[in-house]
Amino acid sequence: MAIDVLAQIVTNRALSADYNVVEFAAPDLARLAEPGQFVMVKTSLGDDPLLRRPFSIFEILRDTHGQPTGVSILNKRVGVGTNLIYATKPGERLNVLGPLGQPWPGQPDAQEHWMVAGGVGLAPFVTLAETLAKTNAKMRLFYGGRSASDLYYASLFETLGATLVLTTEDGSQGEKGRVTAPLERALSARDRANVTLYTCGPTPMMRAVATLGAAHHCRTFVSLEQVMGCGMGGCYSCVVQVNDHDTPHFVRSCIEGPVFDASRIIWDALVH
After folding, report:
1. pLDDT of residue 237
2. N or C: which end of the chain has fewer CB within 10 A?
3. Tens-place pLDDT, residues 62-104
4. Contact status, residue 73 vs residue 55, Cβ threshold 8 Å
């Protein structure tokens, strides 16, 4: 069940000139949220921009007693809406609709859970890692970006018990190269462990992770970052072609996703 709240901004933490984390006071929404779901944020109180912007729920905010008080989003400035989000001030209010979409599925039979994130593709993994940590699950985070300035919050995953593998394309932090290189080595070296993969980030990266997962017989889930106009299936702007029982057809990412079993996705038809 989704609710639409006029949520007050609690904090706006600038991480760099392009990245920030915005916290919203929205206890009712936070209580409903599951790992991997998203919200649609109206980036201004006026009609410009008219459409809302989708954001993965980054964190569930809690009070000193552990009760949910709100949610946060991880934002990167790339257009008008995200620039407005970057410039918001504590005390301002924005309409936040959610939680929306399908969450990460539970995988109780998995011996290890490996998350593969690229840039802001880290956003849907904090809530997943927190949930896995409650069961003492074995976790790894493979986290890549163009440079060190694209990597944030890795230490949070370490405190939750995850093993970190960091990469940057320019070599400014961690291993130089793409995040799929150490992932492939780790998959090849694993000792028959039953590993489930979860990935979010640029489409070519997710496709590469899906290919590696299939080659190494790992169940793989992707969180697609499709353009969405409404988040509730009414506008059909976020259609994804999938293959179910050898029958290709289109589904709406905001309804059947954003989390999909990677084996369903027809990657050649996915808009990058």
Report:
1. 87
2. N
3. 999 999 999 999 999 999 999 999 999 999 999 999 999 999 9
4. yes
Model confidence at 272: pLDDT above 70: no
CA 184 to the chain's CA centroid: 21
* Among candidate residues 68, 100, 132, the one where a domain is terminated: 100
**pTM, entire model:** 0.95
The string over 160-182, giving b where at least 16 C-beta atoms fall within 10 Å of a residue's C-beta and e elsewhere, is: bebeebbbbeeeebbeeebbbbb
pLDDT number for residue 262: 98
In a domain, 193, yes or no: yes
Q: pLDDT class for 271, splitting at 50, 70, 90?
A: low
Instruction: Characterize 224-248 residue by residue with b for buried, 16 or more Cβ atoms within 10 angstroms of its Cβ, and e for exposed.
Output: bbbebbbbebeeebbebbbeeeeee
Classify residue 248 as left (phi > 0), alpha (psi -120 to 50) or beta: beta
Domain end (from 100, 127, 161): 100
**Per-residue pLDDT tens for 228-256?**
889 888 898 899 999 999 999 999 999 99
CA dist., res. 132 & res. 210, Å (int): 21
**Domain of 118, in residue numbers:** 112-224
